[in-house]
Amino acid sequence: MGNTVSCCVSPEGSPKLPSRQPAERLEDYQTNTDVSDDNTGPYLQHISDREVPDELALESNPSDHARASTIFLSKSQTDVRDKRKSNHINHVSPGLLSKKYSSCSTIFIDDSTVSQPNLKSTIKCVTLAIYYHIKNRDSDRSLDIFDEKLHPLSREPVPDDYSYIDPEHKLIYRFVRTLFSAAQLTAECAIVTLVYLERLLTYAELDICPANWKRIVLGAILLASKVWDDQAVWNVDYCQILKDITVEDMNEMERHFLELLQFNINVPASVYAKYYFDLRQLADDNNLSFPLEPLNNQRAQKLEAISRLCEDKYKDLSRAAMRRSFSADNLIGIRRSNAVLS
Q: Which of 16, 132, 152, 158 is the most exposed place for a label (fewest CB within 10 A)?
């Protein structure tokens, strides 16, 4: 993916992951793999039969299901409650209202929508979510491939206390902002980056901590840019941004990241929308307001044009889906006719 080295590796080189299937389904899978006849190979179970039941998936995989709560929002609520409680006890007033509100004569809106989020505000929210992940982590579970001491991103010596000091939000924002600016990535890619990051923490049972946050974030950005953006950034391009990292290191980290995700890089639209609105909620809780501007004729025409563009896009997708459905129905009808004639 994005380089001369394939992302597929031999089974011997893959990290051994704990099985995430219930015991009953695992027994069924083992039984089915033993079933074969003289003319066919081993029974290959369909991917839908190997999916985790909804009850378990909703509890453990918020990056896969829209009904599950995002991890970053739940981790941030502790700090938000403590801050509100402290302000109430100390009688701290909210101060002057800086947020703009619409009136009968003026409507204030921001440029951020689900389909076209504001880049700067989205990166601030995503990095704040990463900050809360690090600050309110449960433990320091990690892997060597993500350890910055073992795989440094620069030639500068890593401090001895690198694994004990939590990074500030500004440091995380500068790191991500530099990558997005240099690689010219979109705001949608930032949201998908957060989805992949939480999926990695859930699937591999890891924690993002001071020792590994840079490489985990880099791996998530690398994968999100290739999956989401039409013109993907190659691994060698990131080596031009981070001068001291090698292509071989990037390739190895990408392979491990994919394997830890169990090659599940699908992001449903409902999950993407959930993360977008939860990031907006995170911004409201932490006084990170999106830039509001009064609605004028030019902005109204722009919004109307974007709306028409989205409607045309969805109409084209629905027509394509209907054509595929008709083709499938015709194929089934032909097979039935052949069966009757035979």
A: 16
Triad 44, 5, 149: Cα angle to 5°: 105
Question: Tens digits of per-residue pLDDT, 291-330?
Answer: 777 777 887 787 778 778 777 776 776 676 666 655 555 6
Is the four-CA dihedral 163, 168, 170, 172 of positive or negative sign?
positive
Band of the pLDDT at 5, cuts 50, 70, 90? very low
8 Å CB contact between 110 and 118: yes
Pair of tokens at residue 304: 């109307």
End-to-end CA distance of the chain: 47
> pLDDT tens digits for 118-142?
899 999 999 999 999 999 999 999 9
Spatial neighbors of 79 by CB under 8 A, at least 6 apart, are: 132, 135, 136
Q: Copy the structure tokens of residue 220.
A: 């998530």
Q: Shortest CA distance to 180 belongs to which of 138, 124, 139?
A: 124
pLDDT recorded at residue 11: 44
User: CA 115, CA 338: separation in Å to the nearest integer?
Assistant: 46
Rounded CA separation 276/117 (Å): 8
Neighbours of 77 (CB within 10 A): 15
Q: Which tokens sit at 203?
A: 């699937």
- Rounded to two decimals, what is the model's pTM? 0.69
DSSP state of 47: G
In sequence order, what DSSP letters do the residues of 73-123 get, joined into one string?
Answer: HHHHHHHHHHHHHHHHHTT----S--S----SS--EEES--SSS--HHHHH
Q: Cα 237 to the chain's mean position, in Å?
A: 21
- Closest to 252 (Cα-Cα) out of 143, 134, 163, 140: 143
Give yes or no for a contact between 264 and 52, defined as CB atoms under 8 angstroms apart. Answer: no
